[in-house]
């Protein structure tokens, strides 16, 4: 799904794990496409959602807030949120906002999938 300068794609990696790849920007304007992607990525069997930030160009405070909203939805479903592909700049922002305490941050897709048990 495309929204302005953002493209969000969903892939099923295993019966219990899906990936959401975000290319472009994450701002408050990305809410509808991201939540739609989460709806497509999640079902009763889904235990882990892996966010692929390798194509992320820009994220502002509205985007951080959107990730918090997504995190709450994931946790309500008894799922885990994992991520990879963050630049050093955004990794530091995740640390400053303590999002890295709630979202498993990994250095590669393989590491995130291993943490998800795939």
Sum this structure up briefly.
With 118 residues, the chain is of the alpha/beta class.
Task: Walk me through this protein's architecture.
With 118 residues, this protein is of the alpha/beta class. The protein has one domain (2-112): 2-Layer Sandwich (Transcription Regulator spoIIAA). The chain has 5 helices and 6 strands. The protein has helices at 31-41, 61-76, 88-96, 99-102, 109-116, and strands at residues 2-3, 6-14, 17-26, 48-59, 80-84, 104-106. Strands 1-2-3-4-5-6 form a 6-stranded mixed sheet, with helices on both faces. Helix 1 (31-41) links the parallel strand 3 and strand 4 (48-59). It starts with a strand and ends with a helix. The model has no long low-confidence stretch (mean pLDDT 94).
List the helices and strands and how they pair.
Layout: E1 2-3, E2 6-14, E3 17-26, H1 31-41, E4 48-59, H2 61-76, E5 80-84, H3 88-96, H4 99-102, E6 104-106, H5 109-116
Parallel strand pairs: 3-4, 4-5, 5-6
Antiparallel strand pairs: 1-2, 2-3
Give a quick set of tags describing it.
118 residues; alpha/beta; Transcription Regulator spoIIAA; 35% strand
> What general outline do the C-alpha atoms trace?
globular
First and last CA, distance: 25 Å
Fold-level CATH name: Transcription Regulator spoIIAA
Helix content: 40-55%
CATH superfamily: STAS domain
Helix count, DSSP H or I runs of 4 or more residues? 5
Count of β-strands: 6
Q: Which structural class fits the helix and strand makeup?
A: alpha/beta
Which strands sit side by side, in order, in the main sheet? 1-2-3-4-5-6
CATH level-two architecture: 2-Layer Sandwich
CATH C-level name: Alpha Beta
Number of domains: 1
What do the pLDDT scores average to?
A: 94
Unreliably modeled segments = none
Radius of gyration from the alpha-carbon trace, in angstroms: 13 Å
- Report the portion of residues in β strands: 25-35%
Taking the sheet with the most strands, its summary is: 6 strands, mixed
The SSE order reads EEEHEHEHHEH
């Amino acid at each position: 799904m495309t929204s302005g300068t953002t493209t969000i794609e969903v892939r099923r990696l295993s019966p219990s794990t899906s990936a959401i790849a975000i290319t472009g920007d994450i701002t408050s304007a990305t809410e509808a496409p991201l939540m739609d992607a989460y709806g497509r990525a999640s079902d009763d069997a889904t235990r882990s959602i892996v966010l692929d930030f390798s194509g992320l160009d820009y994220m502002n405070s509205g985007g951080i807030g959107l990730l918090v909203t997504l995190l709450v939805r994931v946790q309500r479903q008894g799922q885990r949120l994992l991520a990879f592909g963050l630049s050093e700049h955004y990794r530091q922002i995740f640390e400053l906002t303590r999002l890295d305490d709630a979202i498993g941050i990994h250095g590669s897709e393989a590491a995130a999938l291993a943490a998800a048990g795939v």
